[in-house]
Amino acid sequence: MSDDVQPGAARTAILRAVRAARPAPVARPDVGAAVRRFAERRDGAPDDSALLAQFVAAARAGGSAVVEGTRADVPRLVAAAVPVARRVVSQVAGVVGLVPMPDMPHGLADAELFVCEAVFGVAENGAVWLPLSRLGERAAVFIAAHVAVVLDRRAIVSDMHAAYVRTDVAAEPFGAFFAGPSKTADIEQSLVVGAHGPKEFTVVLVGDG
Amino acid sequence: MTASTSERAARTVGAVGRVALFVPCFVDQFYPRVAIAALTVLERLGFAVDVPESAVCCGQPAANAGFARAGDAALGALASAYARADRVVVLSGSCAAHVRAHAAGRVAGRAVEFAAFLHDDIGVDAVAALGARLPRRVGLHIGCHGLRGLGLARPTELQVPPFNKLRALLETVRGVEFADLARPDECCGFGGTFAVAQPALSAKIGRDRLRDYTASGADVVVSTDMSCMMHLGGLAHRAGVSLPMVHLAEVIAGDS
Amino acid sequence: MPVATPTRRAALPVVDAHAPNGAPVDHAAAAARFTADEPRTDWHDGALWFVREKRDRQAASLPEWEQLRELASQIKEHTLSHLDEYLIRFEERATANGIRVHWARDATEHNRVVHGILTAAGSRRLVKSKSMLTEECRLNSYLAERDIDVIDSDLGERIVQLRGEPPSHIVLPAIHLKKEEVGETFHTHLGTERGLADPQALTAAARAHLREHLLAGDAALTGVNFAVAETGGFVVCTNEGNADLAAALAPVHIASMGIEKLIPRAEDLGVFTRLLTRSATGQPVTVYTSHFHGPRRGQEMHLVLVDNGRSVQLGREGFWRSLKCIRCAACINTCPVYRRSGGHSYGSTIPGPIGSVLTPGMDLKRYGALPFASTLCGSCAAVCPVKIDLDAQLYRWRQLVADAGHAGVSKAAAMKTTGWLLARPRLFRAAGAFGRLALRVLPARARRLAAGPWGRARDLPPAPAQSFHAWYAARERAGGAAGRGEGPGA
């Protein structure tokens, strides 16, 4: 693919140079043990309701709307959150998507609302984990004007350490943490919501609690 | 001087209560009053103070400008001058940081900045016993090398429990109130040869620092670094701002 | 592969502020020009200090902040000290994931690889998200000369691209511009109403404009924040979603990364994602933290591993730790010099303290001034989430710059004289006495001139009649401590 005169010449040269330049070996720290010490400092693990409250506060601080109800309420809650949406793409049973998932992601360009299920949320920053299997198509969640994510209220982990323990991020070819609507502050540090991606991001918390 | 102060000094610094004082070149030339105050404080605390004549400079200006070898000649002269001193009190945070970082095996381990010496070796109670008084609103200034290099206070970047040795010492001085700065440990822009290599920028950083002091209502700036004070004082004088800049030693000696 | 002959000029002005073998950067002169507009300097300083304060609040919200920094530092040092092994492992896993891995020794090779991929895929419109590496390689001008349209899709980068400027900051590329100037740029290039300066409205205009380009792009290029050796995937962090959207739409996704971006395991991401955004913009996390472990159905995914001087830096005993950098820009935001001189004054791709330790190694003569663009206040090192000893490295570079004779002839002579003088106390004291006498007798104007650059904005302190040592010697003669006499006065 590249213009190498000899294929692999760059690879060989770089690896040789790196090997020759290596500093004295530094031991790999025990990340797991360090993370357990962080938890101990916080006087043990917070209970589920504390995690949920922290998640909701962080999600709202990041610009997400958070609504709550039971699973049966989801279609009504989604409709209430984005009342005017007609071009809906849905990956959630019970929420009717009028736009089928197209073959090419470009077909999603004028989607008004994308609805999907999150695997879990992160209390410290209000992010939700959405792997490809929940998205259907990667572009959907970035291109729709509004995104609604259904999240089980019991599926909250405390922080990003716990998040990477909870999920194998390499299990699917794509997955992302999402923490609210698309944002920019590139003009005079003025926060503007809706840079490229969704202008609104709604978390629908469901469960029996 | 109280008896207990003298005993404590003898206990912490050695039976003879003897320390050496290093007066950096610019303090020697421009701020003899600061060196005299430091000498006075140490003597009132019960120390016999040696001030060898044969050391002038730690070599930091040359080293920070990229000429560490040229600076090392000065540092070497300093190390020989203080070869027999158990404790060398350095009258500048910046110089003390340089000596401690670059004179390993020579004088580094025995060198201590003035405020650190009072706080760590003597203790605030003994300093309080000197009975200094300053009924003023004080703006603190800890030079960056003293702050981050010597750990004279918790810098605002770090998430560790707050402490401030300069403030703790000044809290023993009757009448002192503290001015709250918007940026408590922003650099003053002196930076050694930076002050003359980048005069416009250095002066701008300094003017901003000065503005923070005046906006905070400070009516005196107290520091452990006369280099910063020379810079800020020079800017204040040029701007017609009347804001005294003094060294901690002057406050404790009661000369300010 | 034959290189296409340029058939037309690039549509946008391509100003290459970082051309190699150019004249030495004069940071002092550029900074003096910047500070000449004092209200604007204050505005720039305030914008960045605001970010620093947001960072402080986020850092303070985590009781384990300092332990996290230490952990991140150790992970990076471990990785760098085993970098060849981790590169091989990463390549193997990434390849198994369906990612085509390329290697590039330098900027030219990187650009050739990217151009080769585009040519083979028949791509003419590259949508690029933020990548300081492609700035470092000057990819945009390389591709423009070969008739490929490059659209920077990050809002800040698009603004500076339209203006023909390099970014002035690695996270906030247009931090040097006022909203009125952005409005003027958009009026010229995007046809927005003249005088429009509302960030909300300007962002909306950019969104519409860039959405068209994102949909029309036939290749996407992203940077890489972290690449994970054990999983063969990479992570891209953005707030706007431009990188993700571009990569999710285009039939070709190219990711360019410096070889130092590797970390060993997915669990390490927990450490770095907690530190990165808190340090960078003072948010708890970026809006999007995307994990790529393979192409979309029908998509090509390429990853280019770039050395471009990194292996040389790795071999420099006093400087290899600079490669721990995760490009958060916390050191830039906190730097009192950067805040008041602006990113362009550094004349390097990466400005501020980290740029000043990474860049001199690429061209010591050209970038020799950068290690001196600092007061050595050390705030950079204290704020760094991976604990790079930035001020110590700046100090070390100064020695090498001076040794190589790039510190300026007059400065060298002055320093040698000063060093020699300071090692000779008697002579120094005689010179000091002479100097103080001059300062006492000269009129104010002459005193300012005598003070040289010092005197342009500052006065020297009033010269006392007697130095401390002279006073002390007199006191000793008069009987020591008990005979404490009158001070020398001013």
Encode the helix/strand succession of chain B as letters: HEHHEHHEHEHHEHHEHHEHEH
Helix content of chain B: 40-55%
Low-confidence spans of chain B: 1-16
Distance separating the two termini of chain C: 78 Å
Which class best fits the helix and strand makeup of chain B? alpha/beta
- Give the total of beta strands of chain C: 10
Plain-language structure description:
The complex is a heterotrimer of chains A (209), B (256) and C (490). In chain A, 30% of the residues lie in helices and 22% in strands. By secondary structure, chain A is an alpha/beta fold. Chain A has a 5-stranded parallel beta sheet with strand order 1-11-6-3-2, sandwiched between helices. The longest helix of chain A has 14 residues, at 48-61. Chain A is globular. Chain B is of the alpha/beta class. Chain B has 14 helices and 8 strands. Chain B has helices at residues 3-13, 25-30, 32-44, 60-64, 68-81, 93-102, 114-122, 124-128, 144-149, 165-170, 194-197, 199-215, 226-239, 248-253, and strands at 18-22, 48-50, 88-90, 111-113, 137-141, 177-178, 220-223, 245-247. Residues 1-16 of chain B have low confidence and may be disordered. In chain C, strand 5 (226-228) and strand 6 form a beta hairpin. Chain C has 490 residues and is an alpha/beta fold. Chain C has helices spanning 27-36, 38-60, 65-80, 83-96, 107-121, 132-136, 139-144, 155-163, 179-190, 199-216, 242-249, 266-280, 310-314, 330-334, 336-339, 352-358, 364-367, 379-383, 390-403, 409-422, 425-441, 444-450, 468-477; strands at 100-104, 125-128, 149-152, 219-222, 226-228, 233-238, 252-258, 262-263, 288-292, 300-306. Chain C is globular, with a radius of gyration of 27 Å. Chain C is built from 23 helices and 10 strands. In chain C, helix 2 packs antiparallel against helix 12, helix 9 (179-190) crosses helix 10 and helix 16 packs across helix 19 (390-403). Strand 8 (174-178) of chain A pairs antiparallel with strand 9 (288-292) of chain C, so a sheet runs across the interface.
